[in-house]
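Quick note —
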Amino acid sequence: MLENISERKEAWKTIVLFLVLVLVLTSPFHYAIVNLYPSRIYVGAIMWCPAIAAFITLKIKGRKISSLHWNWGNWKYIRWSYVVPALYGLITYVLIWIFGFGNLSNSEAITEWGKELGLIGIGTLNPTSIAIIAIILLGTIEVIRAAATTLGEEIGWRGFFIYELKKVLSFTGVSIFSGLIWSFWHWPLLVYYSNNVLLEFTTFTIVIVSMSFIISYYTFKSKSLWPAVIFHAVSNVYIQKILPELTIKNEGTEHWLGENGIMFAIVTCVFGIYFWRKAIKEKL
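Predicted structure written out below.
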Protein backbone atom coordinates (compact mmCIF):
# COMPACT_ATOMS: atom_id res chain seq x y z
CA MET A 1 0.00 0.00 0.00
CA LEU A 2 1.32 3.42 -0.96
CA GLU A 3 2.09 5.89 1.83
CA ASN A 4 2.62 9.00 -0.29
CA ILE A 5 -0.63 10.99 -0.52
CA SER A 6 -0.05 12.22 -4.09
CA GLU A 7 0.70 8.67 -5.26
CA ARG A 8 -2.46 7.41 -3.58
CA LYS A 9 -4.52 10.12 -5.29
CA GLU A 10 -3.00 9.16 -8.64
CA ALA A 11 -3.83 5.51 -8.01
CA TRP A 12 -7.46 6.40 -7.25
CA LYS A 13 -7.66 8.47 -10.44
CA THR A 14 -6.43 5.45 -12.38
CA ILE A 15 -9.00 3.22 -10.67
CA VAL A 16 -11.85 5.62 -11.45
CA LEU A 17 -10.72 5.96 -15.08
CA PHE A 18 -10.69 2.18 -15.48
CA LEU A 19 -14.16 1.78 -13.94
CA VAL A 20 -15.63 4.54 -16.11
CA LEU A 21 -14.21 2.85 -19.21
CA VAL A 22 -15.63 -0.52 -18.11
CA LEU A 23 -19.06 1.07 -17.67
CA VAL A 24 -18.96 2.85 -21.04
CA LEU A 25 -17.75 -0.23 -22.93
CA THR A 26 -20.10 -2.67 -21.22
CA SER A 27 -23.36 -0.69 -21.26
CA PRO A 28 -24.27 -1.25 -24.94
CA PHE A 29 -23.92 -5.03 -24.57
CA HIS A 30 -25.87 -5.10 -21.30
CA TYR A 31 -28.61 -3.18 -23.10
CA ALA A 32 -28.53 -5.65 -25.99
CA ILE A 33 -28.83 -8.66 -23.68
CA VAL A 34 -31.64 -7.23 -21.56
CA ASN A 35 -33.65 -5.55 -24.33
CA LEU A 36 -32.80 -7.48 -27.50
CA TYR A 37 -31.63 -11.06 -27.04
CA PRO A 38 -29.20 -12.86 -24.66
CA SER A 39 -26.83 -13.86 -27.44
CA ARG A 40 -23.53 -15.56 -26.52
CA ILE A 41 -21.86 -12.99 -28.77
CA TYR A 42 -23.05 -10.18 -26.50
CA VAL A 43 -22.01 -12.13 -23.38
CA GLY A 44 -18.57 -12.81 -24.86
CA ALA A 45 -18.20 -9.13 -25.74
CA ILE A 46 -19.08 -8.10 -22.17
CA MET A 47 -16.48 -10.46 -20.75
CA TRP A 48 -13.75 -8.80 -22.82
CA CYS A 49 -14.71 -5.24 -21.84
CA PRO A 50 -12.58 -5.22 -18.64
CA ALA A 51 -9.51 -6.22 -20.66
CA ILE A 52 -10.11 -3.50 -23.24
CA ALA A 53 -10.68 -0.96 -20.45
CA ALA A 54 -7.39 -2.01 -18.85
CA PHE A 55 -5.52 -1.65 -22.16
CA ILE A 56 -6.97 1.83 -22.76
CA THR A 57 -6.20 2.90 -19.19
CA LEU A 58 -2.59 1.76 -19.52
CA LYS A 59 -2.29 3.60 -22.84
CA ILE A 60 -3.63 6.82 -21.33
CA LYS A 61 -1.30 6.48 -18.35
CA GLY A 62 1.70 5.75 -20.56
CA ARG A 63 2.23 2.29 -19.12
CA LYS A 64 2.99 -0.96 -20.94
CA ILE A 65 0.54 -3.82 -21.45
CA SER A 66 3.39 -6.14 -20.49
CA SER A 67 2.92 -4.91 -16.90
CA LEU A 68 -0.23 -7.02 -16.53
CA HIS A 69 1.47 -10.06 -14.95
CA TRP A 70 1.37 -12.33 -18.01
CA ASN A 71 3.92 -14.75 -16.57
CA TRP A 72 2.58 -18.27 -15.94
CA GLY A 73 3.74 -18.40 -12.32
CA ASN A 74 4.18 -21.41 -10.06
CA TRP A 75 2.38 -24.55 -11.24
CA LYS A 76 1.20 -25.13 -7.66
CA TYR A 77 -1.15 -22.18 -7.89
CA ILE A 78 -2.37 -23.26 -11.33
CA ARG A 79 -3.28 -26.69 -9.95
CA TRP A 80 -5.06 -25.29 -6.89
CA SER A 81 -6.93 -22.82 -9.09
CA TYR A 82 -8.51 -25.83 -10.79
CA VAL A 83 -9.07 -27.91 -7.66
CA VAL A 84 -10.66 -25.27 -5.40
CA PRO A 85 -13.61 -24.21 -7.63
CA ALA A 86 -14.25 -27.84 -8.63
CA LEU A 87 -14.23 -28.74 -4.92
CA TYR A 88 -16.60 -26.00 -3.75
CA GLY A 89 -18.93 -26.84 -6.63
CA LEU A 90 -18.94 -30.53 -5.68
CA ILE A 91 -19.48 -29.76 -1.99
CA THR A 92 -22.40 -27.50 -2.91
CA TYR A 93 -24.19 -30.18 -4.89
CA VAL A 94 -23.39 -33.02 -2.50
CA LEU A 95 -25.12 -30.96 0.20
CA ILE A 96 -28.03 -30.29 -2.17
CA TRP A 97 -28.37 -34.03 -2.82
CA ILE A 98 -28.02 -34.95 0.88
CA PHE A 99 -30.64 -32.45 2.06
CA GLY A 100 -33.04 -33.36 -0.73
CA PHE A 101 -33.12 -30.00 -2.49
CA GLY A 102 -32.34 -31.92 -5.67
CA ASN A 103 -31.58 -35.51 -6.65
CA LEU A 104 -28.46 -36.94 -8.26
CA SER A 105 -28.64 -38.45 -11.76
CA ASN A 106 -30.60 -36.72 -14.45
CA SER A 107 -31.11 -39.32 -17.19
CA GLU A 108 -32.39 -36.74 -19.67
CA ALA A 109 -29.24 -34.61 -19.32
CA ILE A 110 -26.99 -37.67 -19.66
CA THR A 111 -28.89 -38.72 -22.80
CA GLU A 112 -28.41 -35.22 -24.22
CA TRP A 113 -24.67 -35.42 -23.45
CA GLY A 114 -24.57 -38.77 -25.24
CA LYS A 115 -26.34 -37.39 -28.31
CA GLU A 116 -24.10 -34.32 -28.42
CA LEU A 117 -20.96 -36.50 -28.26
CA GLY A 118 -22.30 -39.18 -30.62
CA LEU A 119 -22.01 -41.86 -27.93
CA ILE A 120 -25.58 -43.19 -28.00
CA GLY A 121 -25.69 -46.76 -29.31
CA ILE A 122 -21.92 -47.34 -29.23
CA GLY A 123 -21.09 -50.83 -27.97
CA THR A 124 -21.79 -51.39 -24.30
CA LEU A 125 -21.68 -47.76 -23.21
CA ASN A 126 -24.22 -47.26 -20.43
CA PRO A 127 -25.46 -43.95 -18.96
CA THR A 128 -22.76 -44.04 -16.26
CA SER A 129 -20.00 -44.42 -18.86
CA ILE A 130 -21.48 -41.64 -20.97
CA ALA A 131 -21.66 -39.35 -17.93
CA ILE A 132 -18.03 -40.06 -17.00
CA ILE A 133 -16.80 -39.36 -20.55
CA ALA A 134 -18.87 -36.16 -20.75
CA ILE A 135 -17.63 -34.90 -17.38
CA ILE A 136 -14.00 -35.55 -18.35
CA LEU A 137 -14.43 -33.65 -21.62
CA LEU A 138 -16.32 -30.79 -19.98
CA GLY A 139 -13.74 -30.61 -17.21
CA THR A 140 -10.88 -30.30 -19.71
CA ILE A 141 -11.84 -29.18 -23.23
CA GLU A 142 -14.77 -27.05 -22.09
CA VAL A 143 -12.64 -25.40 -19.40
CA ILE A 144 -10.08 -24.45 -22.06
CA ARG A 145 -12.85 -23.01 -24.24
CA ALA A 146 -14.34 -21.12 -21.29
CA ALA A 147 -10.91 -19.70 -20.46
CA ALA A 148 -10.96 -17.81 -23.78
CA THR A 149 -13.74 -15.59 -22.41
CA THR A 150 -12.78 -15.53 -18.73
CA LEU A 151 -9.35 -14.31 -19.88
CA GLY A 152 -10.99 -11.05 -20.94
CA GLU A 153 -12.48 -10.49 -17.50
CA GLU A 154 -9.38 -11.52 -15.61
CA ILE A 155 -6.97 -9.34 -17.61
CA GLY A 156 -9.04 -6.41 -16.38
CA TRP A 157 -10.15 -7.43 -12.91
CA ARG A 158 -7.17 -9.41 -11.63
CA GLY A 159 -4.38 -8.53 -14.05
CA PHE A 160 -4.95 -4.79 -13.59
CA PHE A 161 -7.71 -3.70 -11.20
CA ILE A 162 -6.75 -5.47 -7.97
CA TYR A 163 -3.10 -4.44 -8.36
CA GLU A 164 -4.21 -0.80 -8.56
CA LEU A 165 -6.43 -1.31 -5.52
CA LYS A 166 -3.53 -2.89 -3.66
CA LYS A 167 -1.75 0.46 -3.85
CA VAL A 168 -4.43 2.06 -1.67
CA LEU A 169 -6.19 -0.78 0.21
CA SER A 170 -5.35 -3.78 2.37
CA PHE A 171 -5.97 -7.34 1.12
CA THR A 172 -9.36 -7.29 2.86
CA GLY A 173 -10.25 -3.97 1.26
CA VAL A 174 -9.08 -5.11 -2.16
CA SER A 175 -11.13 -8.31 -2.01
CA ILE A 176 -14.33 -6.65 -0.78
CA PHE A 177 -14.13 -3.60 -3.05
CA SER A 178 -13.20 -5.55 -6.19
CA GLY A 179 -15.78 -8.23 -5.34
CA LEU A 180 -18.57 -5.69 -4.99
CA ILE A 181 -17.64 -3.95 -8.24
CA TRP A 182 -17.42 -7.32 -10.01
CA SER A 183 -20.84 -8.22 -8.63
CA PHE A 184 -22.47 -4.89 -9.55
CA TRP A 185 -21.07 -5.27 -13.07
CA HIS A 186 -23.09 -8.49 -13.44
CA TRP A 187 -26.34 -7.15 -11.99
CA PRO A 188 -27.98 -6.07 -15.29
CA LEU A 189 -27.74 -9.69 -16.42
CA LEU A 190 -29.45 -10.87 -13.24
CA VAL A 191 -32.39 -8.61 -14.01
CA TYR A 192 -32.89 -10.57 -17.23
CA TYR A 193 -32.25 -14.08 -15.91
CA SER A 194 -33.54 -13.96 -12.30
CA ASN A 195 -36.83 -15.36 -11.08
CA ASN A 196 -36.45 -13.85 -7.61
CA VAL A 197 -34.42 -10.69 -8.12
CA LEU A 198 -33.95 -9.69 -4.46
CA LEU A 199 -32.86 -13.16 -3.32
CA GLU A 200 -30.59 -13.77 -6.30
CA PHE A 201 -28.99 -10.33 -6.08
CA THR A 202 -28.14 -11.12 -2.45
CA THR A 203 -26.84 -14.66 -2.98
CA PHE A 204 -24.93 -13.72 -6.14
CA THR A 205 -23.20 -10.81 -4.38
CA ILE A 206 -22.17 -13.10 -1.51
CA VAL A 207 -20.81 -15.62 -4.02
CA ILE A 208 -18.84 -13.06 -6.03
CA VAL A 209 -17.33 -11.30 -3.01
CA SER A 210 -16.38 -14.69 -1.52
CA MET A 211 -14.78 -15.75 -4.79
CA SER A 212 -12.94 -12.43 -4.88
CA PHE A 213 -11.10 -13.32 -1.67
CA ILE A 214 -10.01 -16.66 -3.14
CA ILE A 215 -8.98 -15.34 -6.55
CA SER A 216 -7.18 -12.35 -5.06
CA TYR A 217 -5.24 -14.71 -2.82
CA TYR A 218 -4.03 -16.87 -5.72
CA THR A 219 -3.34 -13.85 -7.92
CA PHE A 220 -1.12 -12.15 -5.36
CA LYS A 221 0.58 -15.38 -4.32
CA SER A 222 1.41 -16.36 -7.90
CA LYS A 223 2.00 -12.80 -9.20
CA SER A 224 0.21 -14.02 -12.33
CA LEU A 225 -3.24 -13.52 -13.86
CA TRP A 226 -3.45 -17.13 -15.12
CA PRO A 227 -4.63 -18.78 -11.88
CA ALA A 228 -7.57 -16.34 -11.91
CA VAL A 229 -8.37 -17.23 -15.55
CA ILE A 230 -8.37 -20.95 -14.79
CA PHE A 231 -10.24 -20.56 -11.50
CA HIS A 232 -12.98 -18.52 -13.19
CA ALA A 233 -13.32 -20.93 -16.12
CA VAL A 234 -13.44 -24.03 -13.91
CA SER A 235 -15.99 -22.43 -11.60
CA ASN A 236 -18.25 -21.53 -14.53
CA VAL A 237 -18.05 -24.99 -16.10
CA TYR A 238 -18.67 -26.99 -12.91
CA ILE A 239 -21.37 -24.78 -11.43
CA GLN A 240 -23.16 -24.03 -14.72
CA LYS A 241 -22.65 -27.04 -17.01
CA ILE A 242 -21.70 -30.17 -15.07
CA LEU A 243 -23.25 -30.38 -11.61
CA PRO A 244 -26.65 -28.73 -12.36
CA GLU A 245 -27.09 -31.06 -15.34
CA LEU A 246 -26.60 -34.10 -13.08
CA THR A 247 -29.27 -32.83 -10.70
CA ILE A 248 -33.02 -33.35 -10.90
CA LYS A 249 -34.77 -30.29 -9.50
CA ASN A 250 -37.36 -30.78 -6.79
CA GLU A 251 -40.38 -28.50 -6.86
CA GLY A 252 -40.17 -25.63 -4.40
CA THR A 253 -36.41 -25.90 -3.77
CA GLU A 254 -35.14 -24.12 -6.89
CA HIS A 255 -33.79 -21.21 -4.83
CA TRP A 256 -31.23 -23.58 -3.27
CA LEU A 257 -29.75 -24.64 -6.62
CA GLY A 258 -27.47 -23.05 -9.20
CA GLU A 259 -24.85 -20.33 -9.16
CA ASN A 260 -27.38 -17.90 -7.66
CA GLY A 261 -28.64 -20.46 -5.17
CA ILE A 262 -28.53 -20.26 -1.38
CA MET A 263 -26.36 -23.37 -0.98
CA PHE A 264 -23.66 -22.09 -3.32
CA ALA A 265 -23.61 -18.77 -1.45
CA ILE A 266 -23.13 -20.58 1.89
CA VAL A 267 -20.34 -22.83 0.61
CA THR A 268 -18.40 -20.10 -1.20
CA CYS A 269 -18.74 -17.84 1.84
CA VAL A 270 -17.06 -20.50 3.99
CA PHE A 271 -14.28 -20.86 1.43
CA GLY A 272 -13.93 -17.06 1.22
CA ILE A 273 -13.55 -16.74 4.99
CA TYR A 274 -10.90 -19.48 4.99
CA PHE A 275 -8.85 -17.71 2.30
CA TRP A 276 -9.32 -14.32 3.97
CA ARG A 277 -7.89 -15.71 7.22
CA LYS A 278 -5.12 -17.45 5.29
CA ALA A 279 -4.16 -14.24 3.49
CA ILE A 280 -4.12 -12.24 6.73
CA LYS A 281 -1.94 -14.88 8.38
CA GLU A 282 0.47 -14.80 5.42
CA LYS A 283 0.42 -10.96 5.43
CA LEU A 284 -0.59 -10.57 1.79
